[in-house]
Amino acid sequence: MSMRPVGLPEIPEQTAVVARAAFPKGSLAIRARDRLAEVFVDEPFTEAFGVRGAPGLSPGVLSLVMVLQFAEGLTDRQAAAMAVRAIDWKYALGAELTDTGFDASVLCRFRARLADNGMERVVFDRLLEHCKDAGLVAAGGKQRTDSTHVISAVRDLNRLELAGESVRAALEALAVAAPAWLAGHINVTEFAERYGPRVDGWRMPPSQTKRDRLAQVFGQDAIALCRAAWADDAPAWIREIEAVGLLRQVLVQTYIVRTDARGRQVIKKRDADDGVPPGQLRLASPYDSDARWAAKGDDLFWMGYKIHLTETRTTLPDADADVGTGVGTGVMPNLITDVHTTDATVPDVKATAPIQRKLAEHGVQPGEHYLDSGYPSADLITKALKQGIRMVTPVLQDHSDQAKATEGFDKNAFTINWKTRQVRCPAGRTSSHWNPVKQHGKDAIVITFSVLTCRDCPLQKQCTTSKTGRRMLTLRPEELHENLARARAEQKTDTWKNKYALRAGVEGTINQALDITGIRRARYRGLPKVRLQHAFSATALNVIRLDAHWTTGPLNRPRTSRLERLSYRLSA
Q1: Sequential DSSP letters for 417-478
Q2: Do residues 107 and 79 make contact, with C-beta atoms less than 8 angstroms apart?
Q3: 3-class DSSP assignment, residue 250
Q4: 445 pLDDT above the threshold of 70
């Protein structure tokens, strides 16, 4: 398929006349076309299309369709139907009134092309650049970030169901790609009876003995299939089928193959004693290799992904100070500046640096970055300060036993002399050893007091409970230690607490994304396509907020009462 970069076509005169008559006050689609046409151009997508072959639909047009689709919460079929029957959509797309539109499958193929070429964020980044040029976002100022869970688009499976369904998925793929080869290596009738229906579609055996036997059957079938696929006489391309590769991974992660005393092969399902892969590596479905199981707190356990949304925070002049749209004359809208999607097992602290790096690359890094306690670390706070970003976030407190019990002497009770590399304890005695070390890949300093120093100290019981009877401290390097201590002290003040209340507004943005685009449920399978979904969802939210900014005046703001309107008129 080839592409001729032409961008959005000119709006036909008849379409414009009918659209203006039908929508005298305009609509979101009409205003998006009038004000944001330069965002939806073809040139950024050139590398995803060839120069020869049948010409495809304009990527600019299709990307605008997808933004409107997410703004109105439509499926592909509904979006394709809107491109045919909605006058304002025809206006936005520059289509004739008699245009018959396109098939819904075009959107699926377009998403796959964008995901395969790493172009998930092209439209989001172009809209952000447009807003930056228009003065709606800029470097400095305040921005806030929060995350939420995303449920995958595949079924939840326990480990037994996963083993059986992985065999079934591989058989289904091979039945299409290599039916003759498959028929020559398995008993098709027997396997069809066992793996015809979905594994989670029939009731599992009630007894543990029968479930263990079924697990062995699944394991034996998986081994037989993998051995056939990896045999020397098997075509190499069979091993490249995704479902076959995933079956091999599930087999390794779920089973142990051993040889007993008689030389017989024994297949055993792994348990905790045998060792299981960590969560970030463990497959959860044969149909989505990127989805992972994760937990948050005591009541949230899900399979899928995690999304981080970052938005600007403008200062509003009245009581409606945290309305996400930021509407009103002279008031800038709160716009999403970054969307970052990971698998579910990635902790928030791992997302902080990539988010800030993306913001800096687009020239919209904040002066103050508001985050919750899952995002900061001493290293990140220090690195952000060097980049001109002050992280307003609660840092974790001292984890020592003394600090947890609020009794005895925590690290703050010790005086550190960085020049002489000595630490003075509350009893006035100095440390004996200063040892720079690496802990979990990070620089640290282990401070040790002599046993002779601590043994006869009158404050020993308040200071340490170690068997050796001496106190040890673990510190970060000076700059990191000082920044962390300063943050811990500052977050205890009322001034900081009042300031940090600003972060809560981002939860309203997540709620808006949930209500409008259903952002907590993945529409597609695989991390690249889920990232694409989230990028277009964020783009749609920005278009909605821009539209509210363009059209909503001080007398018709949302969520204003009649009494507030009367007050405004009287004060005017």
Answers
A1: ETTTTEEE-TTSPBPSEEEEEEETTEEEEEEE--HHHHHT-TTHHHH---TT---EEEE--H
A2: yes
A3: helix
A4: yes
Find out whether 540 and 70 touch, Cβ atoms under 8 Å: yes
Residue 541 near residue 509, CB atoms below 8 Å:
yes
Strand pairing report for 300-313 and 336-343: antiparallel
Question: Closest Cα partner for 547 from 17, 30, 39, 21?
Answer: 30
> Which DSSP string corresponds to 80-144?
HHHHHH-HHHHHHHT--TT-----THHHHHHHHHHHHTT-TTHHHHHHHHHHHHTTSS-SSSEEE
Cα–chain center distance at 468:
46
User: Cα separation of 320 and 50, whole Å?
Assistant: 50
| pTM of this structure | 0.87
What is the band of 318 on the pLDDT scale with cuts at 50, 70, 90?
A: very low
pLDDT in tens, 519-563: 999 999 999 999 999 999 999 999 999 999 988 754 445 566 788
- Residue 407 neighbours by CB under 8 Å, 6+ apart: 462
**Which tens digit of pLDDT belongs to each residue from 211-224?**
889 999 999 999 99
Cβ(505)–Cβ(322) under 8 Å?
yes
Q: Which of these, 213, 221, 283, 271, lies nearest to 246 by C-alpha position? A: 283
The one-letter code for the residue type at 401 is D
Residue 496 tokens, joined? 């900081």
Q: Note the pLDDT tens digit of each residue in 468-515.
A: 888 888 888 989 988 988 898 898 899 999 999 999 989 999 999 999
How many CB atoms within 10 Å of residue 92? Answer: 30
Token pair, residue 250, equals: 């599930």
Cβ–Cβ < 8 Å for 130, 38:
yes
Q: How confident is the model at residue 301 (pLDDT cuts 50, 70, 90)?
A: very high
Residue 163 in tokens: 């083993």
